[in-house]
């Protein structure tokens, strides 16, 4: 028993930190409908500002605390509310998640750049000295960091619960949480109350960040804000246990998770697959996945509790393209010209380092096509595509190393392995949709990072060599020009495959039912079949692309396929356009080219490119078809309209039309059909 | 405040003029004009999908209008936020669930009464509401979501009865209720009128509404098809819904009384 307590008690402070995140998530989600994944970034910001003030500017820690937690954090939350989420109140939960994902990726990259400080966070303590043992609980020493975290959390949580339960403001907030509009009919300023919810939850996030500092022993590195994502994942697991509804349950669940993860450290052996470290890493996956699958109450979280939801207009439809045959011919030829020009240039005059970038753009496009399948066609948000890619790469690498399998064959086996995994995920998560499915895939990504990619027969967390292929006399390891050709061929095959699926039965059914699961249910159509097909194909394609990517880089490790890449990939593709093959290729090429430009001209700033794309993600709610697609349609429509106006003028000057001016919309369309 | 030619009594409590509204690209209201005289009960009738609820939502600020004006007792409330309109003395009981199901009965009432400042006054009002509807007193600590449909409607009426608004808009209040409860609901509405509120009743079940109303407005496909005294409404509806086309659009809206 005392052994149990030895491990349980040190887990409590961690749990408190998770609990703060969980409570904040519940609060924002209920009051504003935003499942704020950017919370991890907010926690990071709080910790960073606090550390910056204390370490670099030698500010008194209480002042620093005030600034970081009570000024900067709430301002950040208010900015989110005012400039992002309030602008998109009618957007789907998924759209809001994508926006939040963009922030989650961008902020931890942006903050160190803004403050020109990329050293690690060094502050080890807040309030009580973590180096000092303040009391002994059941024989285990409790240091200042642990004590202050626990005390502050419990005090803040108690104050929050009391405020919600017993004050007039709390009553108003609970009313807004249930229905923004019904509350307004009672004379409550819902916008202001929701803004307060943002302020409060952002304070909690900042607080969680600052309190995390002493627990991590001062080894948080801004360029690796992963600890904060882990913090976020534990937080959202606790929130999920509470059905993203009950604040007290979220609190208890958070603390419970902290204890659990510490117990694992104590009780599991330190060798074997089930080593404490591995299991600890995979714990969020297991718990999150379990909660998502078995907490039935969660399944209704996207069903609005607002009886006045009927006041909302339907979501905006993507702009309809005006088709003018005079445009389609030059466009087809223009496209062919670009492709041929690209290939010829790549084969001849383009400098080597550009060839490498272009080749990686093509390979990334293959991975991104898997997102076109799953998100563009299926409408499902998958946050584990990089893990599928990793699965493909490590399989190919291991097969080449141990069985001497040719790498292209290995890549196919890798794709198969990824596809199987995709199918299993689709089957296991058959009952989940929307946000829950996205979180489930995120859980899988964490599982892959924490456990799967640490297995000795899948890289073991070390560098894996994925050799360059050799087909007959052609050796792809000599320069990247050959490899670019290979990547191009693979991309074309995959693109054709995607187009075929789009036009096939699966694509038709999905297009008809996308975003309308009620329609699907009422038609008696089970989405499961379609979902399994799409997940399988998409995972397979990601696996193939991942293996190719590995072969391009030759040396890869699990760091190359971290789950943050999954998040970044989704954001990139969705921003440029997830509905079409062109969108994925645009995304892949621009990602690679942008990366090269940034590395060449801004070598000191790593991680600029996710920022750009992440800010692009914020346009997703307004233009779900993707910003590039949207602009393309807009410009094409402009040209088409100009052509039609020209027609109309010509018709008028040619002779007075007895029928009067014609509606200048579909003239070209009909005559061309 | 008021036009010198017209006495204060002539200022209608609600004056809707040329109102249009859309849900995204779908246009739901076309140039709707009608008035609710001060102290009167007006029935807003029409078939399913005619736009009755939309009128109620636009008036109370839940849905923005695209054209036209809404005046509440002479004050322009067209672009006001819903919570400020509520502060002006308009109470809208929307169709369907109109109470906070996660709050207790007492919290629902307290929320409605909190504008009447002072703890003691809130206590008074709670007492008044419980006196009028003893069933609520029995369930004061129960979550409102656990009440039956009829009890929920009674809860929404209790809020207004204890603290009568200047204008009450009720949307499909009797929908899906047993006849006995419909009686109770309409008794409650009559009591609210007697307490000094003007009422706009939105109903598909016209008989009950016309029994209480002084005047009626008939909506069809987002426009006013007829308006007049409630006694003549039944005949007019037969003519319009059974017959064809728009009949007399009713008394044309005159210029608004502005400050
Ligand atoms: N949120 C909405 N989005 C799109 N159309 C809506 C929405 N709410 C109502 N409508 C449409 O507006 C019209 C009027 O609806 P409503 O005012 O609810 O009618 P009523 O209350 O008379 O039955 C109907 O055609 C309805 O389909
Ligand atoms: Mg209605």
Explain how this protein is built.
The complex is a heterodimer of chains A (673) and B (259). By secondary structure, chain A is an all-alpha fold. Chain A contains 25 helices and 6 strands. In chain A, helix 5 crosses helix 6. Chain A is globular and about 80 Å long. In chain A, 51% of the residues are buried. With 259 residues, chain B is an alpha/beta fold. Chain B has 2 domains: 163 residues, Rossmann fold; 65 residues, no CATH class. The chains are: A mainly alpha (673), B alpha/beta (259). The structure holds adenosine-5'-diphosphate and magnesium ion. Adenosine-5'-diphosphate sits at the interface of chains B and A.
Helix and strand content put the structural class of chain B at alpha/beta
Report low-confidence residues of chain A grouped into runs of 5 or more: 218-225, 659-673
Q: Any idea what the radius of gyration of chain B is?
A: 18 Å
Q: What is the rounded Rg of chain A?
A: 27 Å
Per the principal axes of the C-alpha atoms, what is the gross shape of chain B? globular
Which fold does the CATH topology of the largest domain in chain B refer to? Answer: Rossmann fold
Instruction: Please give the count of helices of chain A.
Output: 25
Q: Quick one: overall form of chain A? A: globular
Total count of domains of chain B: 2
Can you tag this structure with a few keywords?
heterodimer; A: 673 residues; mainly alpha; two-stranded antiparallel sheet; 3% strand; disordered C terminus; B: 259 residues; alpha/beta; Rossmann fold; 4-stranded antiparallel beta sheet; 9 helices; globular; binds magnesium ion
């Amino acid at each position: 028993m005392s052994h149990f307590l030895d491990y349980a008690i040190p887990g409590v402070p961690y749990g408190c930190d998770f609990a703060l995140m969980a409570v904040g998530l519940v609060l924002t989600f209920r009051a504003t409908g935003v499942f704020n994944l950017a919370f991890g970034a907010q926690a990071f910001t709080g910790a960073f500002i606090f550390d910056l003030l204390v370490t670099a500017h030698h500010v008194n820690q209480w002042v620093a605390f005030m600034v970081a937690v009570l000024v900067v954090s709430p301002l950040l939350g208010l900015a989110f509310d005012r400039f992002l989420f309030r602008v998109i109140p009618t957007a789907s939960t998924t759209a809001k998640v994508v926006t939040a994902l963009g922030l989650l990726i961008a902020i931890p990259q942006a903050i160190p750049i803004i403050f020109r400080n990329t050293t690690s966070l060094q502050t080890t303590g807040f309030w009580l000295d973590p180096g000092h043992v303040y009391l002994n609980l059941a024989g285990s020493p409790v240091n200042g960091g642990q004590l202050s975290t626990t005390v502050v959390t419990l005090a803040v949580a108690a104050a929050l619960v009391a405020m919600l339960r017993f004050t007039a403001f709390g009553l108003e907030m609970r009313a807004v949480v249930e229905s923004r509009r019904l509350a307004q009919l009672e004379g409550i300023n819902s916008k202001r109350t929701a803004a307060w919810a943002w302020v409060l939850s952002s304070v909690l996030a900042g607080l969680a960040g600052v309190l995390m500092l002493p627990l991590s022993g001062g080894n948080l590195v801004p360029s690796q804000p992963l600890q904060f994502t882990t913090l976020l994942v534990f937080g959202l697991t606790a929130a999920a246990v509470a059905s993203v509804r009950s604040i007290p349950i979220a609190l208890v669940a958070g603390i419970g998770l902290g204890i659990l993860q510490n117990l694992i450290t104590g009780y599991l052996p330190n060798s074997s697959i089930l080593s404490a470290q591995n299991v600890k890493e995979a714990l969020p996956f297991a718990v999150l996945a379990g909660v998502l699958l078995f907490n039935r109450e969660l399944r209704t979280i996207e069903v609005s509790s607002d009886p006045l939801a009927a006041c909302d207009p339907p979501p905006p439809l993507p702009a309809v393209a005006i088709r003018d045959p005079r445009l389609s011919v030059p466009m087809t030829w223009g496209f062919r010209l670009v492709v041929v020009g690209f290939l010829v240039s790549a084969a001849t005059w383009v400098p080597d380092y550009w060839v490498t970038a272009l080749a990686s753009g093509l390979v990334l496009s293959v991975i991104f096509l898997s997102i076109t399948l799953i998100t563009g066609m299926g409408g499902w948000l998958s946050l584990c595509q990089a893990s599928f890619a990793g699965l493909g790469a490590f399989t190919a690498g291991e097969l080449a190393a141990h069985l001497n399998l040719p790498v292209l064959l290995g890549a196919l086996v890798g794709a198969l392995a990824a596809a199987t995994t995709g199918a299993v995920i689709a089957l296991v998560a058959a009952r989940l949709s929307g946000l829950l499915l996205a979180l489930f895939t995120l859980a899988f990504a964490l599982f892959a990072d924490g456990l799967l990619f640490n297995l000795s027969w899948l890289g073991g967390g070390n560098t894996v060599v994925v050799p360059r292929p050799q087909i007959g006399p052609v050796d792809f390891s000599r320069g990247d020009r050959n490899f670019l050709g290979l990547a191009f061929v693979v991309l074309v095959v995959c693109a054709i495959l995607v187009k075929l699926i789009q036009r096939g039965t699966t694509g038709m059914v999905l297009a008809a039912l996308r975003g309308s699961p009620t329609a699907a249910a009422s038609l008696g159509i089970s989405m499961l079949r379609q979902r399994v097909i799409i997940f399988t194909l998409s995972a397979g394609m990601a696996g193939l692309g991942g293996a190719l990517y590995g072969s391009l880089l030759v040396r890869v490790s699990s760091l190359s396929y971290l789950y943050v890449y999954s998040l970044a990939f989704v954001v990139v593709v969705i921003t440029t356009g997830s509905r079409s093959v062109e969108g994925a290729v645009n995304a892949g090429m621009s990602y690679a080219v942008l990366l090269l430009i940034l590395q060449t001209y801004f070598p000191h700033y790593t991680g600029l490119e996710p920022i750009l794309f992440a800010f692009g993600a914020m346009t997703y709610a307004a233009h779900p078809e993707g910003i590039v697609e949207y602009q393309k349609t807009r410009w094409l429509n402009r040209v088409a309209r100009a052509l039609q106006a020209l027609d109309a003028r010509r018709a008028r000057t040619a002779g007075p039309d007895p029928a009067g001016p014609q509606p200048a919309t579909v003239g070209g369309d009909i005559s061309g059909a | 405040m008021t036009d010198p030619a017209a006495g204060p009594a002539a200022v209608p409590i609600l004056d809707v003029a040329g109102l249009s509204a859309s849900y995204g690209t779908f246009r739901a209201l076309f140039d709707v004009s009608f008035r609710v005289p001060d102290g009167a009960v007006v029935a807003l009738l029409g078939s399913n999908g005619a736009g009755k609820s939309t009128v109620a939502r636009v008036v109370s600020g839940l849905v923005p209008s695209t054209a036209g004006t809404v005046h509440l007792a002479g004050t322009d409330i067209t672009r006001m936020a819903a919570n400020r309109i509520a502060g002006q003395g308009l109470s809208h009981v929307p169709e369907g669930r109109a109470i906070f199901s996660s709050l207790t009965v007492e919290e629902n009432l307290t929320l409605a009464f909190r504008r009447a400042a002072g703890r003691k006054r809130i206590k008074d009002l709670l007492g008044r509401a419980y006196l009028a509807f003893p069933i609520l007193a029995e369930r004061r600590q129960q979550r409102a979501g656990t009440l039956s449909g009829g009890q929920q409607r009674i809860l929404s009426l209790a809020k207004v009865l204890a603290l009568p608004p200047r204008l009450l808009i009720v949307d499909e209040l009797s929908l899906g209720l047993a006849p006995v409860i419909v009686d109770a609901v309409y008794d409650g509405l009559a009591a609210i009128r007697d307490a000094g509120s003007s009422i706009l009743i939105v109903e598909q079940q016209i008989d009950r509404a016309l029994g209480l109303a002084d005047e009626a407005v008939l909506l069809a496909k987002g426009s006013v098809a007829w308006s007049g005294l409630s006694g003549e409404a039944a005949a007019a509806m037969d003519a319009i819904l059974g017959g064809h086309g728009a009949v007399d659009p009713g008394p044309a809206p005159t210029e608004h009384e502005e400050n």
